Amino acid sequence: MIRQARPEDRFDIAKLVYMVWDDMELELVKHLPKDIVLDAIEKSCVDATYRTFYQHILVYEVENKVAGCIISYSGENELKYEKAWEQLDLPEEIKQYGTPLPVKEAKDDEYYIETIATFAAYRGRGIATKLLTSLLESNTHVKWSLNCDINNEAALKLYKKVGFISDGQIELYKHMYHHLIVK
C-alpha cells in the first residue's frame, strides 16, 4: 500500500536515505559513524522542511512495515529545502560538513524525484515501479525528473520502462548521472 509518510516513519526513511547517501559516497557518510548520520536524517524528516521532510515522501507498506519510499519536491525549492538543514539541532561533528547535498540537482521547472529506495528484503517485488508510477500519475501536468548513476543499468531500465527519457548528464559528488525527465 502506498501512503503519505508520517513523522513516525522517520526511522525507516532515515535508513533508506542513508543507503542512497552511502552509494553517493557523501563526505559525512564516509567520515562519521552511521548512528550519528542516521540520527541527523531522522531529525531532517520532522524538525525542518529539509529535502527529506516527511511531507515530501510517499512510503510503500508491506504488512504494516515500510518497505520503500520515494522523495520528491519542486526543483525551484530544492536549495531552500537544502538550507533548512542548518536549522536542525545537530552536533558540531555533523555541522562541520555543511549541508549534505549543496549542489543543485534539478532544474527549476521540474518536479524532482530525489530518492527511490527499497529495503533489500523487499526488492524484486515491483515496489519501486509502483512508487514511481503512483507519483507520476499523481500529477501529469508537470515535468518530472530524476538522476540515475550512469553505472546503474537496472535502475535506468526501470526508469525508461515507466516513461523517462534522457535529458543529458550531470556530475554530482564526483559521480556521473543521467538526468532523466518525463513530460
UniProtKB/TrEMBL annotation:
PROSITE patterns hit by this protein: GNAT (PS51186)
Keywords: Transferase
Keyword Transferase: yes
CDD domains: NAT_SF (cd04301)
Pfam families: Acetyltransf_1 (PF00583)
Superkingdom of the source species: Bacteria
InterPro entries the record matches: Acyl_CoA_acyltransferase, GNAT_dom, N-acetyltransferase_domain
Keyword check for Transmembrane: no
GO molecular function: acyltransferase activity, transferring groups other than amino-acyl groups
Domain called N-acetyltransferase: residue spans: 1-183
Protein name (record): Acetyltransferase
Organism classification: Bacteria, Bacillati, Bacillota, Bacilli, Bacillales
